[in-house]
Amino acid sequence: LVSRLNSDVIGAQQAITSTLSGVVSNALSLILVLAAMFYLSWVVTVAALVLLPVFILPARALGRRMQRLTRESMQLDAAMGSTMTERFNVAGAMLVKLFGRPAEEADTFSARAARVRDIGVVTAMYGRVFFTALVLLASVATALTYGLGGALVIHGTISLGALVALASLLSRMYGPI
Fold first, then answer.
1. What is the pLDDT of residues 81-104, one digit of tens each?
2. Residue 38 banded pLDDT, cuts 50, 70, 90
3. Whole-prediction pTM value?
4. Angle at 18 (CA atoms; ends 127, 124), nearest 5 degrees
5. How far is CA 23 from the centre of its chain?
6. If you ran DSSP here, which 8-state letter would residue 88 be given?
7. Which one of 66, 70, 76, 169 has the fewest CB atoms closer than 10 angstroms to its CB?
8. Separation between Cα atoms, residue 30 and residue 172, nearest integer Å
């Protein structure tokens, strides 16, 4: 109980300090990057922003699924920790042997450990797919920026330096997202 309470307090402290500062930093960065991009070329910026819903909508659904998996994983970890604390010490092992149910205890522990493993694999796969989708979206947005921006450079609407700056800012926009 004390160990779980300490980890919860530490988790809350980290959520308040690092998560809050990260959110504020990312929001400020995003606002400044978008302002610079709109200043350089509002057409290219709007075209790049049109792709965001393609990413954000599936990301929200994936986030909810990851939240459920993380919650289940934490509950299983807590159950496994309790099991190990209660039954894998000398008194607990003697009690299990006394009542003649060691196979049942081993099966229960194996099932919990297998579920923790399975959740870890699924979570890792979701994370990999999410990262791949983000990289794909950023690549498509960069290609769109260079394509549309290149046409604008040819027509003399923006300069080549503005196009390069837009492409660079675009990569900085996807970082906080």
1. 777 777 666 676 676 666 767 777
2. very high
3. 0.65
4. 10
5. 13
6. S
7. 70
8. 8
